[in-house]
Amino acid sequence: MNVSKIYASYLESKLIGVQAEDANQYVVRALKHVIQDVFAQLSATLIITLATSDAQMDKWFGNVVGNLASTWNSVSVQMLHVNHLPHVPGRKYCNLLLVDSYKALLSTQITEDNADSDDHEYYFIFLQARDALIPAELQQILNHCLNNFWLHCNVMVQTAQMEVLIYSYYPYTSQRCQSAQPQLVNRFDGQRMIHAPMFPHKLRQLHQCPLTVVVWNAPPFVELKWDERAGQMDAIGFEVTLIKQLARHLNCTLIWHNVTLETVATYQKNWGDESQPMSPLELLMKRHANMSVGNFRKTAGRNDKLTSPVAHYYAPLVATVAIKHFQFGQLTLLYFPFQSCVWLLLLVALILHGLIYMWRWRPIGLQVLELLLGVTLVRLPRSWLQRVIYAHWLYGSIPLRVVYQSLLFHFIRLQLFETLPYSFEQLLASNFRGMCSSNILSMLREMPQVAHNYDSYISIPSPYDEAVLDALHQMGDGRYFAITGLDPSVAHLTATNRQRSYHILSQFINLQQVVIYMPKHTYFKELFNDMLRNLDASGCIDFWRRDAFAEYSRRTLQQRSLFQLQDDQQEQRQNEQLRQLIGIYSLMGTLYAVSMLVFCAELLCHRLTKRKTERRLL
């Protein structure tokens, strides 16, 4: 039916507002075909919405829906009558909308209902208007579809000649980009649609149309550089390689939009201030950009505002701690060569011999300790029993002293460490404090382990893991550990020649997903999902990741001059030799101190024995 047909009926003295029954049935058959052969294949439910500004047209739409209700039986239908029923909120996936103008389409509020969903809905709009008004109304409706990323959006019209035509738009064509030029995609011949499918694929290629990508310098994911030949900024890195491959597949060009990401607090402070640069989230939400890359981790807060395809990289968060905190102390190193049972047996034997000597030969009781420490005796005892005990004690202690001294100097040379921790909870229990970027800390706040000990963490005002590792290195002897990504940590420690000075814990703190964020209802989510799955299955993504991180480490090493590397190695050797000397001198000092104590004890015992002897003589 068409208003022009009604007007023609009036001129022919027929009933006003009544169209010939064959024309009505023609429209009903077209809509029936759409419901049974199109929507029934997409979903088990269908939303039919009626919205008009004219009572006569509203009555005719009701008559059409009544005829449809007697013919379908394959789907569950929910009827929404905008003019007679209150608004029903909620997402609407498959939609058949009967409207007489663009204004009536806006009154359905379907755009607001589907604003927070990520997937593409299906919209089949039956526009009923006079032939003279159809082009303008059709253009407005398709512009609305384009601006709200309604990719699957078809508009059906009926002309005065009783033709049922299906129009849609292609956002990217060889003539224009991001345009909603109406194109005839189908026609009803009375039994079926001439072309299939009803919703054609519109993104097979983008005809070199530009896509804006929000990037920031986050090596080795994204590294920004200036291309002298092209006279513009270019980017390299793991995610850049991935995006360029997707762009090559889509036949589109890329425009890099550089933003400087400092802290989350800075962007929250400037949120909505038009005089300040917009954050990456704002750029995507306001649709000034098509996507963003640069180690963008998936969070619940971002998912509420943006959409993303499947994750192309899983970023394990690990704890990195300096190994020097777990070196054996001087006192610990003294008793480490022997196990506890050996020291216990030695102590029991020493006490037993001491008790025997204190009971029978008190004046020479400390000679047992002298023999154990390797001190020579001033004179041998007269008793052969004492000489046998001394010989047994001397020959029994010599192997112990030789083995002990050999192991002790060997361990000092090797620089032994205590058992290294495997979880960050052990570090927190040992009074360590964690440091990470403000972005990561805001994400970790959702973890119960972090929320319970939130005061044990400090944030670094930088989004880069390399800055966190450098801050940890500058802390020196402070009891801190860094929370960073595994691959950036390994690459940076290797590039700075610090991999031997730090230990990366084997247990992950968290496993975060790195994704490509896009605006809600973006055209490219489903397309990117398919391409990313294919690239991941072929191993390309993993290969590009390993190649990008290896190239970043190699390039960073080349940038460091040979003089700096030699200085670092020489300083490391000097520190190692200095630690060895300190250990040896500490051991010698400890042994001399023990010898002095033994000497003082002997001197005291000698004086006490001399006084007792003098008293007996008197």
UniProtKB/TrEMBL annotation:
- Write the protein's name: Putative ionotropic receptor ligand binding domain-containing protein
The top of its lineage is: Eukaryota, Metazoa, Ecdysozoa, Arthropoda, Hexapoda
The answer on whether this UniProt entry bears the keyword Membrane reads yes
According to the UniProt record, one GO cellular component term is: plasma membrane
- Tell me, in one coarse class, where this protein mainly resides: membrane
Q: Which Gene3D superfamilies match?
A: Periplasmic binding protein-like II (3.40.190.10)
Q: Per the database record, which ranges form the Putative ionotropic receptor ligand binding domain?
A: 18-205
Entry's localization field: Cell membrane
Sorted alphabetically, which keywords does the UniProt record give? Cell membrane, Glycoprotein, Membrane, Receptor, Transmembrane, Transmembrane helix
Coiled-coil region list: none
State the organism named in the record.
Drosophila navojoa
Q: How does this chain sit within the bilayer? A: Multi-pass membrane protein
Q: Where are the transmembrane segments?
A: 333-358, 393-412, 582-605
Superkingdom is Eukaryota
Q: Which Pfam families match?
A: LBD_receptor
